[in-house]
Each structure stands twice: as structure tokens, then as C-alpha cells.
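Quick question, first post here. What does this chain look like in 3D?
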Amino acid sequence: MANWMSRFFSVPLLIVLLLQGGCASWQQRSQQARFNEAYFVGDYEAAASAMAAADADGRPQVLQLLHQGEAFRLAGDFQQAINLFDRAEAGMKHLDTQGVISGVGRDLVSLLVNESSRDYRALMSEAILVNTYKALAFLAQANSDFARVEFNRADDRTRRAVDFFADDIREQREALGKQGGGAANAARSLSNDETRSAVVRHYGDPAQWRVYPEYMVPVSTYLHGLYFLANGGGPSELERAVTSLQRVSQMVPDNAVLHRDAELAEALAAGRPRQELEPLVWVLYENGLGPVLEEVRFEIPLFVSGDHGSQLIITAIALPRYRDRAALPGELVIEGSPDAAVETEALASMGQVIRTEVQARFPGILMRALASAVIKGVMQREAAESLGALGQFGAILYTVSTTQADLRSWQSLPDHWSVARVARPEAGTLSLRDSQSGQLGEFPLPNWPFTLVYVKRPTAATRATVTMLDLQGRHQALSYPMARGEGRLNTAAVADAPSGLDYSDLD
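> Answer (accepted):
Ran it through. C-alpha cells below.
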């Protein structure tokens, strides 16, 4: 490791890296803040515009595309949402298949600066939700065939998730191994009791997080099951409905709706004709704002090997940790059905989904943070030996400035989902009420055998978006934007709804 700095890096290069990393981080935070400002009040067009940018190479950025896609979906522009989600998914495939060798140079820069300098690597749960949101957008366009493809892609990603996490950790170890002694020193530090204790004391123990017993995004698996319950054309497709709905029902045992849906799928698979069923309405409530990342920064003891032997140094690392944001209190109450008033029941927590995944990814996250700290520790030692006190001071300043956690995440996801199922009201209208703040509105129901009423409400200041989807994909969606924060149907907004939405097929 002698003359390590002089062989690989110069002071001007380190300055360039520092400025580049700081500038990129500031731009990301500024853009996200503009998006959130518009999104939190339901101005989805402005939110999408805030994310309309690409990097210096003109390539679409996955994180920007995810935010834009969801904003356009909520604004009712389903085709634009599909286009943007397609591009985001293409970016995810590029990141997943670029291979260890091609990523080494960029990985080295991220270890020298921070993880924000890397291309955004979407969570598997985010990729699954992209397929789910695309499927809902295709249903809104009455494109059942393409919806089927996307629901199946979401299900396939779920099945491959466990292997993906194992491969991701292995690839990160291999990539780090190509970058000198950083990985070996990091691995040695990981086996040190004092290092592990420092992580648990300051960051917490991921093994103690509340997670799902198996990896899935319950709402995606549930919608996959509902789609095939409504559309399954043969025994194999109805078995898909049974499998998905049983899995979710077992994962959320207190939800009576899920049990009834699993039983219904089993009856259909056993030969009950679908035509015998009364028209059914599901209300899916997507509530609040999902978790975001915060930085946890603390000092940690690390082993550093070099030409003069090994030594223990104390340096800082920065790790990302998810914290929950706000959910709207209460549930939706569905009135007007032949049943008594029905309240939505908890289906899935986005925070629990993410923590289930991050728990599996955490060894790789920690390994990279430790390897970065080791490399920067070596830089400090080499700078002191080669350049004296001034060089050591500069290296310490560089380390402090660049030790930052990557806090990027898809911030338009919800806090949680809840669901209810009712028979279609004979009067043909459905009344939705917030159990805390009162009436949301009364809505005409289409005469479809299987209707999904999809309600998304990120904040109390945001208009609730109510979209009625034909689960069989034979009719275009009916969309009912609500007045922002006023708890009533905005009839003017319905009259001015985006073109392409069909309001004619009502009783």
C-alpha cells in the first residue's frame, strides 16, 4: 500500500470527486423537494414536471422515472404513466445485468465519494410495484391482455426475489474484491465484536425488525390473485388465483376479506361457475406516505492493513435507515351496499415490505460502507506519511465531507394499503366516508361483474383519487378526482377529467 495515494489519485482528482459528489447530492435533494412540495398537495402535473430531467449523458434516471410515472398515473394519464414505467423498468434491467466487471469503475468512485454517485439501484419491491401499477394502468385502458402480462411479471419477480438478494450480495463482494484490500479489511472488521456492537448500538439490529415471514409485496400478490379470480380461463389460471390469495391470507391472518377471497377462488377452481356470482365490488385504499431514508452516522473501529502491518483506526461510517412518515388516521367506510357499513381492513404495510427486503440486503450495504471507510482510512494514513500534517488534514476533511449515506428512494409510495369487499349496491351508487374526517363522496357504480374501486390519498391536503377499474378489463376506467382536502366529490373535476376515460357505461 506504499504511496497508495500517489499511485492512484492526485489531490486535484480528489477535489473533482468531492465537488462532483456534492453537486449531484444537492441536485437530487433539490429535485426531490420540488416534487414533494407539489405531490403533497395533489398537484400531480407539477410533481411530474419537477422530475423531468436526465443525467449529463441524457440517459433517463430510474428514480426520476418512477416518480414521474406515479404522478401521471394519479393525474389520469395512464398511457404516459405506462411509458415512463417502461423506461424505468428498462433502467432496472440495465443495472441488474451490467455485470460486476463493467460496474467496477463506477463502484470504485462511489467508495471514494459516496453511494449517491452510483446509478440508483431500485429495490425489488419497487420493481414489483412498477409491474403492479402498470397492470392497473392497462386495466384502466381496458387492455386485459397487457394487464395479465404485468401481473404475471410482478408475480415472477416475487418468486425470484430470494435468489436475487443472494446474488446481489455475492456480486457486491466480488466487485469489492477487485478493488484492492478494502473488501478484505471490511470483512475482517465485520468479524470483530467491537465493530458489530457499534453497529447494533447506533444503527439497531436488523434481525429484530418487524418483517414479513416470507418476501413478497402483499398488495401485488393480492391484485395478481384478484385478476385471475375475475379472469381465469381454465384450471391453471384459477389455481394462480388460489395460490396468490391463499399466500396473502396466510400472511395477514386477521383480515377477513382475504379469507373470503381465498375461499371464493377455491370454489371457482373447484368448478363453481363464475356466472353464478353476484356482482362484487372491492375497495382498495392506498393511504399516506411511505417510509423515507435518514442518515445514521457514527464512529466505528476498523482494521487497516498496509505495508507496515495492521492497525486499528477509529473512523466514521454513514448508513441509510428507513423511518416511517405519516398515514391518514382511520379507514374508509363503504356505505350504500346491501351489507351494513363496511370498513376497510389492513392489507399491507410498505414499511414492513421495505424492511423485509433491506434486512436481506443489509450485509451488502454494511460491507460497502465499511470498505469505503477503510479506503478513506488508508488515504488518511498515506497522506500523513507522504505529505505530513497538511496532507493528513486534507484527507480528513475529504473523508468527513464525503462520508454520506445514500438517501434516495421512491417517495410516492404509500404508508399502507387496506381493503374491503361488498356486493354491488342495487341502487348503483357507492358512498365512501373517511372514518375520521367524514364524507368523501357518493359515486355511481358501473354495472360490471367485478369492480375494483381504487382510492389513493397521500396526505390530508391531497385530493383523494378514486378510480373504478373493471377487473375483467372490458371497460375503460372511471376516474373521480376529489376536491383537495375538502372531503367531497369535485364534480367540476369529473367533468374536466382527462380524455379517454369512459363515463357512458353506467346504469
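Confidence is low (pLDDT under 50) at residues 1-11, 98-106, 483-507.
Residues 350-402 form the longest helix (53 residues).
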